[in-house]
Automatic annotation (TrEMBL):
It comes from Mesorhizobium zhangyense. GO terms for biological process: 'de novo' IMP biosynthetic process. This is Phosphoribosylglycinamide formyltransferase. The keyword Protein transport does not apply. The lineage of its organism: Bacteria, Pseudomonadati, Pseudomonadota, Alphaproteobacteria, Hyphomicrobiales. The record marks D145 as: Raises pKa of active site His. InterPro entries: Formyl_transf_N (IPR002376), Formyl_transf_N_sf (IPR036477), GART (IPR004607). N(1)-(5-phospho-beta-D-ribosyl)glycinamide binds at G12, S13, N14. Catalyzes the transfer of a formyl group from 10-formyltetrahydrofolate to 5-phospho-ribosyl-glycinamide (GAR), producing 5-phospho-ribosyl-N-formylglycinamide (FGAR) and tetrahydrofolate. GO terms for molecular function: phosphoribosylglycinamide formyltransferase activity. Keywords: Purine biosynthesis, Transferase. Signal peptide: none annotated.
Amino acid sequence: RKRIVIMISGRGSNMAALIEASDDRAFPAEIVGVVSDKADARGLQLATSKGIPTRVVARGDFASKDAHDAAIDKELAAFGAEIVCLAGYMRLLTPGFVAKWQGKMINIHPALLPSFKGLDTHQRALDAGMRIHGCTVHFVTPEMDDGPIIAQSAVPVLIGDDEKTLSARVLKAEHHLFPLALRMVCEGKASMQDGKTAFSDIEHVEQVA
Ligand code: GAR
């Protein structure tokens, strides 16, 4: 099983979904640690309650972004991380750090990329009158929410939806999609090649709704 470290900044519900998936011994990944840039991230307690070691690497403790990411990288090395999952890690990573983890770091974003990069995706989708919304797991590149797509899940926007109801529907899809995408990466079925996602050995394409 591949050794996974999850990076969070907050609630940690996607982290919890990955931990739950990895509780199954047949899942090709084990979660060996959680790193947060926020000492008060709610996900930290959740990880601890699941017996997963956590580290806080707070931005305020470092003079520069480079020093901060270098400290995170040290924790990843100490955990023996092979793949890194960004699960609501809300800070842009430095190009050097991203280059080092290229093809081995994946992120979940609450929109159907390349639409709605950045924050407030659900309200912006509602404001745009979208009838379909969703989530994306992609390889991380230096630009925010911009790397090659591994998997996506679409959900309907229902008449009368508000940010709360829509985000809840998308979040449910995220919890299904992230383990699925991580499995594809761990099994080598999705890999980053020449700036694109290469798919191999996929006998069937699983449609996620
Ligand atoms: C999730 O919806 C995730 O997609 C989003 O933050 C939320 C974290 O929730 N990530 C981004 O917006 C990254 N651009 P969680 O902490 O409960 O997983």
